[in-house]
């Protein structure tokens, strides 16, 4: 069977162009690959077109739009996920139009598909007391409990992305004071973040129990499951969800409805901001490339806004109750209007 043009270009894009020319990370390639797998599944399920028969002429602008609608309606994907899948398709067709001029018009038609506007959402994060509640829910009398407490404490203290935690090796941790953690983020960029002494001591104890024979080898996963394989994103989310549920049962007022691994990153960022750490330092701590990305925390911190306004603006509102409020008949008349 001869490969179609689409199969050939997609293969070269994923295996040669992205890793070799653009130098993107494996996780970025995997995300794009998943979008293409879903597109092929959509064509098979809805139009009975097998993957080996899919070619560029079949992938019209209308087909891609229907695929995006299918993602939302049939798979229940969010608008954000829809836009991520669209971006992956656009990047592929942007590459295809540079490789063959035969389909340049069709490629430009697909590239003109607009992103769908995402609904606004509030930034979910835990208070300091909420973080303590989740950590206190971990029973540390077992090996697994020690691992989970170390994992959650490190996620919060380092404000790491969940994939950065999953990818940690034992040699990424430095126990010597001042203790640090090396994180590898988006685009394979690394950064060094400081750790609190209590977190550092906890990680050291964990390593002594889980990696007693470690002698400085590289690529030894810091956190692993029962099969000795490194924890996945889903595995980490499952661990957090378990203790969030326990904490919510004990102190429901402290735990928001939704708490995700990324929520611990948001929580640490907000707590740093509330403690007076400048945004530019928080940006570097989080590994953001632009300060505008970090500014979302300043916009969400209503308590800090209130304090800033109180410190800079004089209070001119009278605190005493106006005398006319004692006239119940007047109040009754006004309320009846």
Helix content: 55-70%
Q: Can you give the mean pLDDT?
A: 86
What is the helix/strand order?
HHHHHHHHEEEHHHHHHH
The CATH homologous superfamily name of the largest domain equals Intergrase catalytic core
Figure out the total of helices: 15
Identify the CATH class of the largest domain: Mainly Alpha
Strand order of the largest sheet: 1-2-3
Write the layout of secondary structure elements.
Layout: H1 5-22, H2 26-47, H3 61-73, H4 79-99, H5 104-111, H6 128-136, H7 143-158, H8 162-166, E1 173-174, E2 180-184, E3 190-194, H9 197-210, H10 233-250, H11 261-274, H12 279-286, H13 291-300, H14 302-312, H15 328-336
Antiparallel strand pairs: 1-2, 2-3
Helix pairs in contact: 2-4, 3-4, 4-5, 6-10, 7-9, 7-11, 12-13
Describe this structure in words.
It is globular and about 60 Å long. The chain has 2 domains: 107 residues; 182 residues, Intergrase catalytic core (hpI Integrase, Chain A). 25% of the residues are buried. The mean pLDDT is 86. Helix 2 crosses helix 4. The protein has 337 residues and is mainly alpha-helical. The chain has 15 helices and 3 strands. The longest helix is centred in the N-terminal third of the chain and has 22 residues. A hairpin with a 5-residue loop joins strand 2 and strand 3. The N and C termini lie far apart (81 Å). Strands 1-2-3 form a 3-stranded antiparallel β-sheet, with no helix packed on it.
